[in-house]
Amino acid sequence: MNRRNEAGQAMPEYVVVVSALVFSFMLVDSEWWRTNVECPGYDDCISAVSASFHNQYQGFSNSITAVHKFLPSFPASLSTSSATGDDDSNDEGGGSADIESQVGLTNQTVVTTEDGDSFQMDADGNLINDNGEIVGTYADGVFYPVEGPPIGATMGIQVLDEEGNILKPRVVICDGEVTAFAYQSQVDGRLYDTVELKPIGDDEFRGCQTEGYFKMLSSDGTPDPFAVLYAGYYYPSYLGTPNAAGEVILVQLAVPNEPGEYGDYAGQTLDLCLVMPARWDSDPSKSDLDAILDALSAEPPQFIGSAEGFCPSLRSVTGPD
User: In the chain, what are the domain boundaries?
Assistant: First the structure.
C-alpha cells in the first residue's frame, strides 16, 4: 500500500470519527435518546446508531481512497545531454550515473565553474557531466573534481528540457513587439511558461519568433538574475508579462573640463552602458548629460543598472547637449 495515499486519507477519517463521537454525546441529553427505547431490527437503539455510523464511515472511507491525484508525478532524475543538444552518452553506462529523459521542463541544481563548465547535481550530491559520468562534488563555492585541483564555482537552479539541455528564458517577438517571455525546448522547439513551466498552446504565438536577451548588473555591480535588456529597453523580470520600465543608454563622451559645472566628472571620459528609469530625461531644464551625471552622483544612485560588453541600446549620449 502506498503510504502517501494513506497519509492523505488519515485526516478525513479522523474528522469523521470525532464528528460522530461528538454527535453521539449530543444525543445523550436529547428527547430522542430518552423516548426511543426500541429500534426495529436491532437489539437496542445504541446498536442502531453504531451500525448507521459504521455504514456512513465505511462509505466515506472508500470514497477517500479513490480520490484523484491533484499533483503530477515527476520523475526522480533527468537526462544529461549537453546544452548544445549533442548527446555523446552510450547505452552501456560504463560506470556513469544514468539520468532518464522525461516529458516537459523541470528545475535542476546545476554547478557552474569559474571556467564556464556546467554540471548537473544528482540526488546523492555528485556532479554529472554531459556523458552521465560523475566528475566531482561541490561545497561552499568550490568545485572538487575527481581529477585536478579545486576551482571556484557557483550553484543555482536551472531549467532543463526533456534531454537535460540547460535553457535560458527567451523573448517572444510577435509583429515586432515584445509579447512574452518563455523557455523553448531544444528538443522540439515548444514554448513553456517561465513561471510554472507549463507548455504554451501551439496557436498562441503562431508566426512569432524567439530571441535571446542581455543581462543586467544592478547599480551596486551585482548581477540581477531576473532583469531583461532587449532592443534598448529594460524589463524588470522575465517572470510574467513583459513590462518595460526603463531604457538602455550608451554614454560615450569626454565631459568638459569645467569643475563648476560638472563637479568630479569634469574632464573625465565616460564609456558606460546605463539602464535608466522611464522618463529619466523628462526635466526640460537639464541636458541629457546633466541627467546622467545627476543619476550617477546621487546617493543612492538614481540609475537602475548597467550592462557589460555589448550595449543593447537604441539611444546614445555623446555630448553635453
Answer: 3-65, 78-167, 169-235, 246-317
